[in-house]
Known about the structure:
Elements: H1 3-13, H2 31-42, E1 49-52, H3 59-71, E2 76-80, H4 87-90, H5 95-99, E3 101-104, E4 119-125, H6 133-143, E5 144-155, H7 160-178, H8 181-197, H9 203-226, H10 233-248, H11 255-282, H12 286-298, E6 302-311, E7 314-323
Parallel strand pairs: 1-2, 1-4, 2-3, 4-5
Antiparallel strand pairs: 5-7, 6-7
Amino acid sequence: MRAAETAIWNDYWHFDRLSSFDDAGPTNYAQEIAAGWQAFFEALPDGAAILDLCTGNGAIAVMAAAAARRARKSFRIAAVDAADVNPYRHVKQHRDDLAAIDFRPATPIERLPWPAASFDAVVSQYGIEYSDLSLSVPELARVIAPGGKVRLVVHAAEGPVVQRSARVVPEIDFLLHDIDLAGAAQRCLRAVAVVERSLNHSLPAQAAARDSVAAFQHALRETARRAPIAADRALLAEAGETLTLLYQRRRQYDVATAIGLVEEIRTEWRHHRARLVAQIDAAITREGRADLVLRLKALGARQVSEADQAGPDGLMGHCIEASF
């Protein structure tokens, strides 16, 4: 993962979110997804050592800890991510289960810090596909112990989540470039402040303020016009509502602060776009799933099974399970 991409994920995981899904539910993922993980962890023996690859804030690792607690087993759980994750600090729920996990931030899965045969199970949910598979899959095989179990779930390129992401990217481009909503808001705030705060009531200053307000209002109308037909209606609706409210409350801030708040919104749009593009690029087709199976078999995996992972909206991911 490149440094710029890592910085974006750093920001993303420095919030109180356990998974990358907005509606995680009590099991961190929809029950259709969680059930497979629960069955996998419950089948592991007492004392198993588990490694969660590309853990984020630990959604799957928490499932493992919860399964151990319910079954009165003792698991040793480690979790790695290339981003600077710190769930102990940022995640408010599942505190006891999080405390049972050894998180290793800033740890690329292409270079794992454990000796060979360290783990009885290696897992990943929507993670390993973001890595360089030519390096990460051999590392997985290196650290898993003889008889160890693997369960990998990857984004399905054919699924509705990835397809929706592909539709949302142009909508973010619309905000960022086509109408430059944030830029229109910033220009409006500056021009209006010249008249309101410096008492510059000259005709040119007043004309500039009127023109900037009109341009901002036009951008807001274009946003509102597109929102009802957008793949991510909430994104566009919230963009317009947030910037409108900021303009209405502009006198509560100095100009630099108001401009900075708009820039933060623009940065979040850019980061959201980058995450979506990364997901689209990482997603794996059924042919890619077959290739991943061949990589595992070439490294000694046996009893390999592959299947579609269904969710509430249909195909969510591709699932591969194997023994070593």
